[in-house]
From TrEMBL:
CDD domains: ATase
Protein name according to UniProt: Methylated-DNA--[protein]-cysteine S-methyltransferase
Entry keywords, A to Z: DNA damage
SUPFAM superfamilies membership: Methylated DNA-protein cysteine methyltransferase, C-terminal domain
Length: 111
DNA sequence: TTGATGACATAGC
DNA sequence: CGCTATGCCATCA
């Protein structure tokens, strides 16, 4: 278990209910902006070893592009449980449900 | 260690 | 908005 992996897992667990985060976003918060792929890899691998809220993780477009329809369906269902609206194609309104990680660390530059 | 893989992101057309 | 090409690097065999 590398520090980065542990970090990614921590970040994912930081995702509040009712919101979704993108791989790139998690990767950045984890410290590796280029490791967006590894986030996916970590989910796929670790989610079956740890209890990660992987369902709150989507791609940069907010779509559920998972290969297995079962998993995609599960994610859609879970997101629905969180109160998140999901399109027929498994798309989510990032502008409405994307996680705003300013709570993670007060390093915001909008104000 | 080496080689191959992948639940993605970003840039150009 | 969709397709093509490249980068990036942890995980698995």
């Amino acid at each position: 278990m590398e520090a980065y992996t542990q970090q990614v897992i921590t970040v994912i667990q930081e995702i509040p209910t009712g919101t979704v985060a993108t791989y790139g976003q998690i990767a950045r918060l984890a410290g590796n902006p280029r490791a967006a792929r590894q986030v996916a890899r970590i989910l796929h691998s670790m989610s079956q070893k740890y209890d990660l809220p992987w369902h709150r993780v989507v791609n940069a477009k907010g779509e559920i592009v998972i290969g297995d329809p079962e998993i995609a369906f599960t994610q859609t269902a879970l997101l629905s449980e969180e109160g998140i609206e999901v399109s027929e194609k498994g798309k989510v309104h990032l502008s409405k449900y994307q996680w705003n990680p300013r709570d993670h660390d007060s390093d915001w530059m909008y104000g």
